[in-house]
Specification:
single chain, Sodium/glucose cotransporter, 21 helices
């Protein structure tokens, strides 16, 4: 497959690339050279930028390419992980963790662990999360974006990887989170426009809305326990821990919340993100549901996206959709790089190597770390070439399962149970990788969601047992770190913001009801 772009397509694509780089460089010149400005955009983000950037960073090539491939081969259930995040992960962020992150003025999520437990817990999390970002976020996004460019334009995969990494790295390293957020808002608009164009073209070719409604007969969000990929038992632990980790304890997502103007903007931003999280997966999934009617025998499901672009889109729209794909790749990649540099600087460089570093030295190290992360991500892309025989989206979920059970246990028990100790948290964090690997070796046929769920609950039990056998922190040291009913309310000085329809709970109830309707209707 080799797509020959028309002059119009090339112009649209080129204008978008130049626009993103130009906007990123412009944003990088707006801020001051301080840690707070470089890593948290100066704590000035309004709710709409928070929600938009969360979803722009979240949705990437592993959705446009990977999730679309899963929906092609498995159907509507591919949307379950995305909507499940609204019910689990984002709810955990909104109603449990967010107040503690904001009120303590943290730069990074690991800082919460240090204040709640101690230095070793912070370091354990930082190590696990950096491995996750490099092996799952950065490398996978580069691979899938490059795979599509290779399929459509004939550019070699590794050449595409390097081009994408360098283009994104230029403004991300120069401008920090401010440049990331500004470019992500442009990229979200282009991504949604491109997705809608592809959806309309595919549905029209398949016979219109009637073709979509016809597929609704097999829309299932709850599948039998013996399903190899999406058994209903996944909701008992696997989806829960991955969702809580990704949405509520993940620097990649939470960093945008930490940069909010205040707690009301943070809460409204998460709720706005819920609405986008509901809409964007529909745009991605619907074309895949009707695609088997048009292309019933694709060799690889992950090739559905480039196939639809090549076969169905007219001149002009090809350039827009290609820009949407690159928007998804660059927004996700820039967010992951920025999160890595923040953790490396705030959680490793400053505490262990340069405690007295100036603001300029911290920013300089962050930029150097960003360059190194990009190089390592490019090298790790080779890992995905060996897993191209199955949908990469499923591989990614499996990879998350290796790292996330212990992290989710550390955070959930740490914030909900005051008796949790540092030793218990470390036991859960250290256990997660070896036990996950052992489960995969011993039970290779078991669905990875089930394996992940077993590891998660084992980590929870081990954390409880070790905590009961060790001495807890005194109550005074836990002040402001344990959840209680007061955490549901805004601080007294911000409650005037949430009167009437400005109350985040009002909009949260609407989107939650919509998601629950689909789960009940298509159970």
């Amino acid at each position: 497959m080799n797509l020959n772009l028309t002059a119009l397509d090339a112009a649209i694509f080129g204008i978008y690339i130049l626009g993103v780089i130009g906007l990123g460089i412009y944003a990088s010149r707006k801020g001051q050279q301080t840690k707070r400005d470089y890593f948290l955009a100066g704590d000035k983000l309004p709710w709409w930028m928070i929600g938009g950037s969360i979803i722009a960073a979240n949705i990437s090539s592993h959705h446009l390419v990977g999730a679309m491939g899963v929906a092609y081969s498995r159907g509507f259930v591919a949307i379950a992980m995305e909507w499940g995040a609204i019910l689990m992960g984002f709810n955990a962020l909104l109603w449990i963790f967010l107040p503690f992150y904001i009120r303590n003025g943290f730069y990074t999520v690991p800082e919460f662990l240090e204040k709640r437990y101690g230095t070793a817990a912070r370091t354990t999390y930082a190590t696990l999360i950096l491995l996750t970002y490099i092996l799952v976020e950065i490398s996978a996004v580069l691979y899938l974006g490059a795979l599509s460019l290779h399929s459509l334009l004939g550019i070699s995969v590794m050449t595409s990887v390097v081009i994408l990494a360098v283009l994104t790295g230029v403004y991300t390293i120069a401008g920090g989170l401010r440049a990331v957020i500004w470019t992500e808002m442009l990229q979200l608009v282009v991504l949604v426009m491109g997705g809608i164009a592809l959806t309309i073209a595919t549905v029209t070719a398949a016979g219109g809305i009637g073709a979509v409604l016809e597929t609704s007969k097999s829309w299932d969000l709850i599948l039998p326990a013996d399903d190899p990929d999406f058994p209903w038992t996944m909701y008992l632990g696997g989806v829960l821990c991955i969702s809580v980790f990704y949405c509520a304890t993940n620097q990649f997502i939470v960093q945008r919340v930490l940069a909010a103007k205040n707690e009301w903007h943070a809460r409204m931003g998460v709720v706005f993100g819920d609405y986008l999280k509901f809409l964007v997966p529909i745009i991605i999934t619907v074309p895949a549901l009707v695609a088997p009617k048009l292309f019933p025998d694709l060799e690889k499901p992950d090739l559905l996206f480039p196939t639809l672009v090549e076969k169905l889109l007219p001149s002009g729209l090809v350039g827009l959709v290609m820009a949407g794909l690159i928007a998804a790749v660059m927004s996700h990649l820039s967010g992951a790089i920025n999160s890595c540099t923040t953790i490396l600087t705030v959680d490793i460089y400053l505490p262990y190597f340069k405690k007295q570093a100036t603001e300029q030295q911290a920013v300089r190290f962050g930029r150097m770390a960003g360059a190194v992360i990009i190089v390592v991500g490019i090298l790790c892309t080779a890992l995905f070439l060996e897993h191209s025989d199955k949908p990469i989206f499923l591989y990614l979920m499996n990879a998350y399962g290796l790292f996330t059970p212990g992290i989710a246990a550390m955070f959930l028990l740490g914030i909900l149970w005051k008796r949790t100790t540092h030793a218990g948290a470390l036991a859960a964090g250290i256990l997660t990788i070896p036990m996950s690997v052992a489960m995969e070796i011993i039970f290779p046929a078991m669905p990875f969601f089930n394996r992940t769920g077993i590891v998660f609950w084992t980590c929870m039990i081990v954390c409880v047992l070790v905590s009961l056998a060790t001495k807890p922190k005194p109550a005074a040291a836990l002040e402001g770190l344990i959840w209680n009913r007061a955490s549901l309310s805004l601080p007294e000085d911000q409650r005037q913001y949430q009167r009437g329809i400005r109350n985040p709970a009002f909009w949260w109830a609407i989107i939650t009801a919509a998601v629950l309707f689909f789960y009940i209707r298509y159970a």
